[in-house]
Amino acid sequence: MHAHLVFVTKYRHRVFADRHLTRLEEIMRAVCADFEAELVEFNGEADHVHLLVNFPPKVAVSRLVNSLKGVSSRRMRQEFPDLVRHYWRAQRLWSGSYFAGSVGGAPLDVLRRYIEQQARPV
C-alpha cells in the first residue's frame, strides 16, 4: 500500500532549513524501516513535509504516523536545540493533524514528481 503523508509544524512556524529536512528524512527512513515500510520519496518546505510511503497492509496508518511524528519530534529537539524556541509550551514540533491519502497505479508517478518538486528552503 502507498500513502501520501503531509505533516505541518505546530502553528505553521517556518522552522526548517535544508539541514533540518535532510536529518528529518534520515530519521523518517529509519522509522519506516522499523515498520517494514519504505520511504519512497521525501521533501518539504520550511513549515511542512511530504512523504510517499510504501507499507505492508498489516501496518495501521495511524500507528505509522504517530511513530514518524513522535520519533522525529523528539530527535529533532535533541539534535537541534535552535528549534526549541518554536516548540514553546507544548514541546511538540508537529501539529496534531496530518494528511494521509492512499495512492496507487498511474498517479503514483505523478505524486512522486510532485513531492520531488517541492521547494526546499535555502
UniProtKB/TrEMBL annotation:
GO terms for molecular function: DNA binding; transposase activity. Pfam families: Y1_Tnp. It comes from the Bacteria. GO terms for biological process: DNA transposition. Signal peptide: none annotated. Residues 1-118 form the Transposase IS200-like domain. InterPro entries: Transposase_17, Transposase_17_sf. PANTHER family: TRANSPOSASE FOR INSERTION SEQUENCE ELEMENT IS200. This is Transposase IS200-like domain-containing protein.
